[in-house]
Amino acid sequence: MTKGPRQGGGPWEGVPPEAWGDWRWQFRNRVRTLRQLSAVMGRSVASLAAWGPVMRVYPVAITPYYLSLMDLADEGDPLRRQCFPDPRELDQALGGEEDPLGEGEAMPVPGLIHRYPDRALAIATSTCALHCRHCNRKRLWTAKGSGGARGRLEAMVDHVAGTPAIREVIVSGGDPLLLAEGLLDWFLGALRAIPHVEVLRIGSRVPVTLPMRVTPGLCAMLKRHRPLWFNTQFNHPREITAEAAEACERLLSAGIPVSNQSVLLRGVNDDYGTMRDLLYGLERISVRPYYLFQCDPVRGTGHFRTELWTGLGIMEQLWRNVSGLCLPRYVLDCPGGRGKIPLQPFSLLPECGGEGKHSFDKTGHMD
Ligand SMILES: *Cc1c(COP(=O)(O)O)cnc(C)c1O
């Protein structure tokens, strides 16, 4: 586990630990401009000029905490890659669409995606602590009117209340933990009060990018809305720091199971050793690996996409070598709103038979 905090260096030299550990301070001091990037890197603004056009299309936001985990000078650092601008984000030749999953067309009311019969996903806010460069909702970063306004959330509640088929609501974003706490409390409570809503789920990367936001007070509030499940997104073993582990522990202690959805990212976690270490690390902190996503064909993320065979090869090695508790399901979210499908390595059955020496009947009996 990475030890932290490491607030001693760079522009945050001398920041008192109380400020460093305060999520509001972290949020206020996010690095968002070229000038701030140049300051943290100790480089001139001019030398970073190639990032300017990228940042105008896809703004940068990085918490001091997350910055402290990476080697700023190493372009290949897997954490740096996830949050630093890259000119390839503007390379149209890498393909991709704004909204390949057709989420915009699956919204009965603005911000509520209803694609699977029994589950709906609420984009409760478009704000995030950190802008992941591989985000599949990059199109919303600069969208107006997608914020967490009470009226929008009320319209979502009304729709869910009038749709008895919905038994689970996933509150996502953006990052729902950046809504005002009282508003999130109200939203969860309003959903919980609907008789056919049996389960709530939160999708948030805050335990990874701003773990100090997971305060005891927040956990006490969330606890009142159980059964509540929590999905986060660790993509690299170095993100499993003491602070992140403590944030997950506070959720777990409140009776909120925490699962993980990673994205398979070229140059970040697209090799067996890194993925194994990530999954082992998650198992150690009682966070259950749930999904490993093939990176969606979203415009501006092409440089992160791997071939399907890369993911299948990693999955096959994982199947053979690691604890079943560590195994995520590798899934592809199909374009056009057809939903997620699991991708499996080829069946191991013939191999169990020992190079064709045995055969199986239809029920799996081996001769
Ligand atoms: C992924 C997703 C869900 C949840 O799917 P699970 O397989 O239950 O995790 C629900 N709605 C939408 C729109 C999604 O993209």
Description:
- With about 375 residues, the protein is of the alpha/beta class.
- It has a domain at about 10-95.
- Helices cover about 30% and strands about 15% of the residues.
- It has helices at about 15-20, 25-30, 35-40, 50-55, 65, 80-85, 150-160, 180-190, 205-210, 215-225, 240-255, 270-285, 310-320, 350, and strands spanning about 110-115, 120-125, 170, 200-205, 230, 260-265, 290-295, 330-335, 340.
- Strands 1-2-3-4-5-6-7-8-9 form a 9-stranded mixed beta sheet.
- Helix 8 links the parallel strand 3 and strand 4.
- Helix 7 (about 150-160) runs parallel beside helix 8.
- The N and C termini lie far apart (about 45 Å).
- The relative contact order is 0.11.
- Pyridoxal-5'-phosphate binds near residues 113, 115, 116, 170 and 340.
- Pyridoxal-5'-phosphate binds near residues 113, 119, 121 and 340.
Main beta sheet, described? 9 strands, mixed
Q: Quote the beta fraction.
A: 5-15%
How many DSSP E strands? 9
**Secondary-structure content class:** alpha/beta
Radius of gyration: 21 Å
Low-confidence stretches: 1-5
Assign a percent range to the helix content.
Answer: 25-40%
Taken from the alpha-carbon principal axes, the silhouette is: globular
Mean pLDDT: 92
Cα-to-Cα separation, first versus last residue? 47 Å
Bound molecules: pyridoxal-5'-phosphate
Strand order of the largest sheet: 1-2-3-4-5-6-7-8-9
Helix/strand order = HHHHHHEEHEHEHHEHEHEHEEH
The helix count comes to 14
